[in-house]
Amino acid sequence: MNNVWVDGVAQASIPASDRGLAYGDGLFETIRVSGGKTTMSVYHWQRLQHGCQRLGIALNLSQLRDEVAAFLQTSAVGSGILKVIVTRGSGGRGYNPQGCCSPRRILSIHPLPERKPDPGFVGARVKMCRLRLGRSALAGLKHLNRLEQVLARDEWQGDYYHEGLLSNDNGHLIEGTMSNLFVVSRPGELITPDLSFCGVAGVCREFIIDLAHSRGLTVREQPVLPTLDVAEVFLCNSVNGVWPVVECEQRVWPVGPVTTFIRDCVLEKLHG
Amino acid sequence: MNNVWVDGVAQASIPASDRGLAYGDGLFETIRVSGGKTTMSVYHWQRLQHGCQRLGIALNLSQLRDEVAAFLQTSAVGSGILKVIVTRGSGGRGYNPQGCCSPRRILSIHPLPERKPDPGFVGARVKMCRLRLGRSALAGLKHLNRLEQVLARDEWQGDYYHEGLLSNDNGHLIEGTMSNLFVVSRPGELITPDLSFCGVAGVCREFIIDLAHSRGLTVREQPVLPTLDVAEVFLCNSVNGVWPVVECEQRVWPVGPVTTFIRDCVLEKLHG
Question: What is the ipTM of this complex?
């Protein structure tokens, strides 16, 4: 990471006493930057604020947004990924977070991942991961406790697969390692897994739910079976946009019309 | 933290790119130091090595142990707590840990916590936490994903309670926020919760299981009901030793003979 700010200052290191390191006591956002500006930022800041409230981290969001604006101006990056980490800071005693009131902000900029050909157009090949996501009191949050994702992502190597799908203890599909899952069950109806008990409530997922509602599509949050006996399947995140799934464990799908429509709307949003 | 080494060098900061910060991608040990030496170290190194194997972190344990010895010598601390954090280091791409082969070692020394009167002798008052521990693929490991413990510990303030007890989704007791749980169900028989699906397999817990076997006591790893309808209850960790539980949600227990015996054996071990 060449360009890093910690608490508003250009600096590539953090105190070893940070609770983000000690306990994963914090949250993050991975934001696509286009034309020097953050995209889907309303959704990102809303989720971050919600997460801070849930964890009891007293983030000053307006200060953070000012820092992000100054950071992007200084970085002079047109396109890229902005990573924002907010930790509870240093302090407290053991696990006890009480008395720890100075959240730390860590901003860094990274190149956009490139895959050629672009899975957003030719489609993504996906595998089923063995790791099962645990039921968590912190479901939905994009917190720093991400070992499940690390281990799931380690289940395959090489370029053949673009993403891995994760299930819960009941065998229901929940999400990809770095993306959310939608299926088109019948014309005009999207289903995405309910994330009340595990999974990360992605920003792009929220955008798509709002988009669908505004276009008269139905969205149901309900269990998705691994048989994936549906017309279309797609994955989404706020960096890559929408990836139509064209292959998963011997099943194949075309890049369907609903997916194409949503992909293009998301792409427009991500291009700022 | 005044005294910190990172990768064998005195230094109080780590790169902001560390995966321990980004994802909690690492493990830790909290080791009691007595007479300038680590205690229960065979158990600590064994658990750390097992955890590294499970996470695929290529730790050089013998290098780490040399660093710890040099660190303690330099620190010249007689009694205290040594915290050892091992992360996967910097690198990899997103969650993908592949190609990230230089684990980072972070050593720090802290004063022993002091509570007067000592709950090890007068007993501990314990509350039931609301937070339920999720079933996890990483059960048993002392990894850096510890938000559950942070939130559980935040459920009470002040000095009245010494510890909080955590249950799983079925309502079975699993552990304390920073300790493991044992109950004496009948003379000569200890029960401690099975940690196959959640919880941290504490070093002191392992020591007590071995101790009990060597003294002809039975130890069963099986569900413990929250009614705690048992003769004795105690908590343990490798810093505080054994705390007899004397009060939990309107129930009271004396400091019983089995607990006292085990507490004294553990204390002897922790005094080096």
Answer: 0.97
